[in-house]
């Protein structure tokens, strides 16, 4: 099963999305806090901005919006009884009828370079989003100051903010980094022709696993979600942060049951194996993780627990 088309993904999301209110609750009883390796603070003046550090690098979680996916057996835990999904959610203190997904691109300042990881959903109809420009400015950065954009994959909740409503480049001075397989798939998508034409002069492709900014940003291939889906390792000295992309969507279901099928994955069996392998790598290495769809700000670690894992947010 392949779902490389932006329009196909939008249809899937619309089918599973409920546009009701969304809570940003954190894991419930039983979760423990991971020790913070760097200072982290939420902006007192702007709740959509969360500052932290990766070694000597300044980093900021930037809230763009939310997606709500119904627990209807069609989106997460496909083929599983909905009461099993509900029980997993209830044990974490979450609503049992809906799965809340946050959307938070990541900003990193590296000397003169201003790096943005994914661009949010903009005004896509399946999400309540489009707050990235305001969040970015609240963090003290204008769109024209962004020098490099790293796209995990071309689904519209990650690449939707590349263009303005008028079809112009939202970040006119930024190189747009995405994997060569992802770019090839995007160019082959007739529904993405306008996006491809607009961003083509700015696109800088890389091979899976490449050191894109040596010593700072390395691509981590996580196969199955899309043809060139990529996580990123961001480094400063001995400190590392693993940006998950869509390796895991939900902080309970994706982490505790990585083998459950996700409708968004183009090649579900491959994505499930990749998800488990990446979570195992994170747990074994006690890696600091940034999860774009977990409760804001999406910063924490993954611990092994039984046959699965558990998300441990930084406090």
UniProtKB/TrEMBL annotation:
Pfam families the record matches: Lactamase_B
SMART domains: Lactamase_B
Keywords carried by this UniProt record: Hydrolase, Metal-binding, Zinc
Secretion signal span: none
Superkingdom per UniProt: Bacteria
Ranges where the Metallo-beta-lactamase domain occurs: 102-293
PANTHER family: QUORUM-QUENCHING LACTONASE YTNP-RELATED, QUORUM-QUENCHING LACTONASE YTNP-RELATED-RELATED
Similarity-based family: Belongs to the metallo-beta-lactamase superfamily.
Name of the protein: MBL fold metallo-hydrolase
Originating species: Pseudoxanthomonas putridarboris
Organismal lineage: Bacteria, Pseudomonadati, Pseudomonadota, Gammaproteobacteria, Lysobacterales
């Amino acid at each position: 099963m392949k779902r490389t088309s932006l329009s196909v993904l939008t249809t899937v999301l619309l089918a599973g999305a409920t546009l009701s209110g969304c809570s940003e609750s954190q894991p419930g009883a039983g979760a423990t806090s991971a020790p913070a390796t760097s200072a982290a603070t939420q902006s007192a003046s702007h709740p959509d901005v969360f500052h932290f550090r990766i070694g000597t690098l300044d980093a900021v979680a930037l809230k763009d919006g939310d997606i709500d996916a119904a627990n209807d057996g069609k989106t997460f835990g496909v083929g599983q009884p909905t009461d099993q999904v509900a029980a997993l959610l209830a044990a974490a203190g979450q609503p049992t009828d809906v799965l809340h997904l946050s959307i938070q691109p990541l900003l990193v300042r590296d000397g003169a370079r201003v790096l943005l990881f994914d661009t949010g959903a903009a005004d896509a109809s399946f999400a309540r989003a489009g707050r990235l420009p305001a969040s970015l400015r609240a963090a003290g950065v204008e769109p024209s100051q962004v020098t490099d954009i790293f796209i995990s994959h071309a689904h519209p909740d990650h690449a939707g903010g590349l263009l303005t409503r008028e079809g112009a480049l939202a970040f006119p001075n930024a190189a747009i980094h995405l994997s060569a397989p992802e770019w090839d798939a995007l160019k082959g998508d007739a529904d993405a022709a306008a996006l491809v034409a607009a961003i083509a002069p700015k696109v800088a492709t890389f091979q899976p696993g490449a050191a894109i900014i040596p010593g700072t940003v390395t691509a981590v291939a996580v196969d199955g979600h899309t043809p060139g889906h990529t996580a990123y390792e961001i480094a400063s000295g001995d400190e590392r942060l693993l940006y998950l992309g869509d390796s895991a969507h939900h902080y309970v279901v994706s982490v505790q049951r990585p083998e459950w099928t996700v409708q968004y994955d183009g090649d579900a069996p491959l994505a499930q194996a990749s998800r488990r392998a990446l979570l195992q790598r994170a747990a074994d290495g006690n890696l600091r993780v940034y999860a774009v769809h977990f409760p804001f700000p999406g910063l924490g670690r993954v611990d092994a627990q039984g046959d699965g894992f558990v998300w441990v947010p930084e406090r």
